[in-house]
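Why do we care about 3D structure at all? Because function follows from shape, and shape follows, mostly, from sequence. That is the central idea of this module. The next example makes it concrete: a single protein chain, its amino acid sequence, and then its structure expressed as tokens.
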Amino acid sequence: MEHQAGPEPRGTPGEEPRPQVGPFREQRRDEFGRLGEEFRDVRLERVIPLAAWLGDRPWNLLWVRWLVFYAFFPLALGRLIGEEGIPIRNAVWAFGLYFAGVWLTVLSMTMRPEKLNPALIVEIAAFTAVVGIVLVVLVQQLPVISAFYGATRSDVKAESWIGFVLGVGVLEEIVKALPVYLLVFYQRLPFRPLTYSFLGAVSGLAFGVAEAVPYSFRYTQGLLYGQLNVGTYLLVEFTRLITLPLLHAIFAGITGYFIGLAALNRRASRALMLIGIGLAALLHGTYDCFSDSWLGVGVAVLALMIFISYIRTGDLIAREIARSEADA
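And the structure:
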């Protein structure tokens, strides 16, 4: 049978035949071409305007600086620590002050206090964190106060509640109010009651951070010796560092507001301050007594709502108190 040759390959005789480009390759080449045209139409300097950004200087904005600090403080702390590690005490102070700064920024934006000397804020915080904590440790050992503190361990809930309110609540709220009284009220600084409240909140935050140090050491020991699992440890530690300093600030902010009212009506100053301390101690002690139940959560929310209500109606109440002083 005679073999018939197929069609001759195209091209010049003696040359290797060129591979033919399939339709898929042609389509892909066209797509890349169109994509290149799209990039040329967009122009990167329009969508990544580095010159405009440098001219805007966003790093000079206060809120940007705060955002950078709050967002990346833990990263910076990790780099500062290095491989040597950090004692639990230093770590608690670092993160306690970090979260306190977050709350202080929120309170400053919502309460809008008058312009304050930063030195006064530092003095109030340092007084509470050092002198205030020492006073609590010493005074709670006095006969009557120690009896109230002992009652907090009673199995009878009513006795425990009385101990928390009249012992823990009253003592700690007086201690937190003390720097506001000595450094602001006694000095007759002309601040609005809401500014007094803000300074009271500063004192409360400082107390909460200082209080977190021994508690965190206790939690760490519980984790090491198997009394707490990792999940429970994280829960109680973050509650101690984040939520409880804010609660202390709320209680102390209420007391501080009443000290501010007392500055407007010095004729009734003692009564106003006692009402403030009594209200804060009642909320504080009730929360402590029921902190292991949903009732404690409810009391915490109630305290926040009362604090917010004073912020929203604070100037109105202050005008009424000032008017009563003027009419006397």
